[in-house]
Amino acid sequence: MKDFLKLQDLSADEINQLIDLAINLKFKQDNRIKHDYLLNKTMGMIFTKSSTRTRVSFEVGIKQLGGSAIFLNANDIQLGRGESIADTARVLERYLDLIMIRTFSQNDVEELAKYASIPIINGLTDYCHPTQIIADLMTVKEVKGDLKGKKLCYIGDGNNVANSLIVGCIKTGMAISLSCPEGFYPDQKLIDWAKENGEFEIGPDPFALVANADAVYTDVFVSMGQEKTVEQRKLAFRDYQVNNKLLSCANKSAIVLHCLPAHKGEEIAENTFEAHAKTIFDEAENRLHAHKAIMQTLFQDKF
Ligand code: CP
Ligand code: NVA
Fold first, then answer.
1. Which of 94, 110, 222, 251 has the highest count of CB atoms within 10 angstroms of its CB?
2. Does 53 sit in the ligand 1 pocket, CB within 6 Å?
3. Which residues line ligand 2 (CB under 6 A)?
4. Ligand 2 mean position, distance from CA 224 (Å)
5. What is the pLDDT of residue 300?
6. What is the reported pLDDT for 303?
7. Residue 260 resides in a domain
8. In-domain check, residue 226
9. Which domain, by its residues, includes 183?
């Protein structure tokens, strides 16, 4: 694994190994077992969009691995004034050992990886959110013991998180169903791929699609960059809330996942969120362990 740009680039084995490594690193962290595998490595973190979890967990994660991080607001570096991605890549690779980037365009992330010889991690684009899904699958594995044969149901917007969930679930042998209103479906190429490669369902009726789900997942109706379409979206998604009525149609022991931040009362009812808060915040914690696993794996050939 040279970079971590999208889950399509990883084999099923690589995804499973990342999840298992994350679980192992969590054990080491909890038991104060030394794991400074990235001693003296420096990561640059470029952000064009806001972040709480991704920013803090990557920075804390590399510190726990013995390295350090520099936060680079895209507007504060010359990239924000038009310096090309190719030139930015060829400069930053001379100072840094690793770059994590959160931005709008997936092409920009791929371009950064093309020009930089150091590993690049995608910390979210409009197209996908691959680091999130390693933490999500890790959380399912912790609770359910195994991924293969389990079913995840995603309710709401067919966005970046949904795109990555499709790939992550299918590659790890999980069944995935998605219920999204018409016009808000995930990437069509991923839908076609998923239909050919695993157990996949999509449609407009959340009550039908949530049947037999072991995990029910939702995300905001309005992602970063879509603020102008708030009213249109609120209308389109009004029947797509994860609440107790919907959960009563899933498996009795179904867990609820949310990548956060949550808009309670919109994509998830407040009482449902609070009833499942333990798992949702475990999922948020697992970003830390998942990111450490991704960073360690990107360097493992160099140990
Ligand atoms: N889930 C997630 O990526 O959160 P942040 O936007 O806070 O990083
Ligand atoms: N879909 C959301 C995820 C935030 C972590 C967004 O892109 O804003």
1. 222
2. yes
3. 124, 159-161, 219-220, 223-224, 259
4. 6
5. 87
6. 38
7. yes
8. yes
9. 132-284
Question: Residue whose CA is closest, atom 1 of ligand 2?
Answer: 223
List, run by run, the mean pLDDT of 10-residue segments along the chain (303 residues): 97 98 98 97 98 98 98 94 96 98 98 98 98 99 98 98 98 98 98 98 98 98 97 96 98 98 98 98 98 96 47
Q: Which residues make Cβ contacts (< 8 Å) with residue 172, sequence separation at least 6?
A: 12, 15, 16, 19, 137, 147, 148
Q: What pLDDT is stored for residue 301 in this prediction?
A: 56
Q: Are residues 209 and 122 in the same domain?
A: no
Of the candidates 259, 252, 251, which has an alpha carbon nearest to the alpha carbon of residue 217? Answer: 259
Specify whether 146 is located in the same domain as 33. no
Closest residue CA from atom 6 of ligand 2: 223
Q: Is 54 in the pocket of ligand 1 (CB under 6 A)?
A: yes
* Whether residue 220 sits in one domain with residue 292: no
Indicate which CATH number applies to the domain containing 24. Answer: 3.40.50.1370
Tokens of 101: 């980037």
Instruction: Record the tokens describing residue 233, joined without a space.
Output: 């979206």
Nearest to residue 151, comparing CAs of 267, 245, 257? 257
User: Which pair of tokens denotes residue 26?
Assistant: 């969590």
Residues 180 and 274 in one domain: yes
